[in-house]
TrEMBL record:
Gene for this chain: yhbN
Subunit structure, interactors included: Component of the lipopolysaccharide transport and assembly complex.
Domain of life: Bacteria
Location(s), subcellular: Periplasm
Name under which the protein is recorded: Lipopolysaccharide export system protein LptA
Record function comment: Involved in the assembly of lipopolysaccharide (LPS). Required for the translocation of LPS from the inner membrane to the outer membrane. May form a bridge between the inner membrane and the outer membrane, via interactions with LptC and LptD, thereby facilitating LPS transfer across the periplasm.
A biological-process GO annotation: Gram-negative-bacterium-type cell outer membrane assembly
Recorded family membership: Belongs to the LptA family.
Gene3D superfamilies: Lipopolysaccharide (LPS) transport protein A like domain
Amino acid sequence: MKLISSKIVLASTLVFMSFSALALKEDTNQPINIVSDNQSLDMNNRVVTFTDNVVITQGSIIVKASKVVITRPEENSKQKDKVEAFGNPVTFHQVMDDGKPVDGKANKVVYDLGTEFLTLTGDAELKQLDSKINGSVITYDVAKQQLKANANSGARVKTVLIPTQLNRANGK
């Protein structure tokens, strides 16, 4: 039983490691393109809101949402932008440095550029190839490369691991 538990922990660790590099290094240097049916700007509060059929692209990243709110901090505050996306669901796709795609979805996605912290809330899912993690809330600390998944009361976090894909990722 201890051997089986060790294999499950190892397999889970490999899946989380495979999700740990959510960005191609070149993606963050690419221009950000945002297309939507509507856009509004609140200059006093430094908020830009995009609504209806929002599509954001940056390098290999593609985000689709029904609403995206970008809040810019005051100048000289040393804070960075905060991006909130809403949808039913918000979806995103990205190709990692190793060429493998990562797909995700949730009812709400928040990315704080200052803390480099990503939060997926409401029917959250991260998927790479056929392996995936589902939960009520999935958080990813980009700087620390730490992923956590939680479920609401009465629900459970679900992880699906495909051994053949894990073995290929491990070079076996």
